[in-house]
Design goal:
This protein is α+β, with helices and mostly antiparallel strands and 416 residues long. The protein is built from eleven helices and 20 strands.
């Protein structure tokens, strides 16, 4: 199976409503449904495969049995599955909260930090969100306002409408206001530090816990400049890229795409219905459905009349990889750093070596003499195999004068 339909994990938090059950077809026996974790390998709420031979297994179990090829090469840099995608129905206000970054969360919580984005699927008139501070405040004022329950006075309140997007970086204090129905794409994390909760009580009759000390350590206390555009994407950050698909069933009723070996894709249907096809697979989708499209799918098509969010793992640049490596190995000695690099970045080293060899051969071919063709085939084969970049391989094949169809034949012969 290349396209897996997923059944979400359901959360009945006290601020939830009923719209996910009545309008989005979510099956739940409780009175209110606050969140559905539509794409999740998190132990606090894993998604379940609904179709095919793995029906009934969790998404985590499916990946474990099929191997990491189904998640793609970009996910190799993560020790855990990288993303978590939800629907959120806020019948009431959510707590004022903040999330830590990777460095703090991995050290103190044993899981990733939380960078996230909100897409407003629908909202009541006059709905709003809290997003950062309206002015810079000191740590002392922050503590004082939490104690006096006047924190809302210095928060930046943002009115929203259907289709709006907010990108929330770690350290940004925020909250979803009542009347909003949201699609949330985030890192695979369930770390939240609650700062203010309107004095509400949980099921045990006690006020819900606050996490003031940790919040003080991670909160950015200056106003946040809202980024207005990530064009051509809905959002593109260091962890995920989100695009919107709109098929109207008439002029634009079919769209073709390709999922290569770099990343899986998540298809979250916001409205309408249609079909997703790949080779012999035909998977019907409708409003509220979540599908996991494996990184080995290749070409596929979407047909019908629906709107959806398509999420993939971001292609991290070299500079960001180096920053991430430095953050994660800050407390390691030299031997541990080497072991970590070999475990999680070996394919980058192979790519660099293969690329350097190809460059030297190209220089030799252009300025000195024709390179040995069989040796060029080996390096092109290595570049394709480890870098997963057929376009690069084709360029070098053209430069070296070798017919593309001979690359695999010659390299396989030499390796045998």
């Amino acid at each position: 199976m290349a396209i897996l339909k997923l059944k979400p994990s359901c959360k009945d938090y006290l601020w939830g409503g009923t719209r996910l059950m009545t309008e989005f077809g979510k099956e739940f026996s409780g009175e209110k449904l606050a969140e559905t974790w539509e794409l999740s390998c998190h132990p606090d709420g894993p998604s379940i495969v609904e179709n095919g031979e793995y029906a009934g297994e969790t998404l985590s179990e499916y990946i474990l049995m099929e191997g990491k090829k189904v998640t793609g090469t970009r996910s190799r840099k993560y020790e855990q599955f990288p993303l978590l995608i939800k629907f959120i129905d806020a019948k009431d206000d959510l707590s004022i909260q903040v999330h830590p970054n990777d460095e703090y969360a991995l050290k103190n919580e044993g899981q990733y930090g939380k960078t996230e984005m909100w897409y407003i699927v629908d909202c009541e008139e006059g709905s709003s969100l809290y997003y950062g501070f309206s002015r810079e405040i000191s740590k002392e004022e922050f503590v004082e306002r939490i104690g006096q329950k006047t924190l809302l006075e210095v928060l930046n309140k943002v009115e929203v409408q259907k289709g709006d997007v907010l990108f929330i970086e770690p350290g940004t204090i925020h909250a979803i206001g009542k009347g909003n129905l949201i699609a949330e794409i985030q890192q695979n994390s369930n770390v939240t530090y609650r700062v203010y909760d309107y004095g509400r009580k949980g099921a045990d009759g006690k006020e819900r816990d606050l996490h003031i000390e940790k919040a003080l350590q991670v909160t950015n206390r200056i106003p946040i400049m809202r980024k207005k555009s990530f064009k051509p994407h809905v959002v593109s950050c260091d962890y995920f890229t989100v695009d919107k698909i709109v098929l109207d069933g008439q002029r634009m009723k079919r769209m073709f795409g390709e999922i290569d070996r770099s990343s899986f894709a998540s298809l979250l249907v916001l409205d309408g219905e249609g079909t997703v096809r790949s080779h012999e697979e035909h998977v019907p989708v409708k409003k509220g459905d979540s599908s996991f499209i494996t990184a080995i799918t290749g070409e596929y098509e979407r047909e019908g009349s629906f709107e959806a969010l398509l999420t993939t793992v971001y292609k991290m640049g070299f500079r960001k990889r180096m920053e991430e490596f430095q953050d994660r190995t800050k407390q390691m000695d030299r031997k541990q750093k080497l072991e970590y690099a070999l475990m999680y970045y070996w394919y980058h080293l192979l790519f660099v070596l293969a690329g350097a060899g190809l460059f030297l051969l190209l220089v030799r071919h252009l300025f000195f003499a024709e390179p040995p063709k069989a040796f060029t085939c080996v390096l092109v084969h290595q570049a394709v195999d480890y870098a997963r970049d057929e376009e690069l391989a084709a360029d070098f094949a053209a430069a070296s004068g070798i017919e593309p169809e001979r690359i695999e034949m010659d390299s396989d012969y030499l390796f045998s």
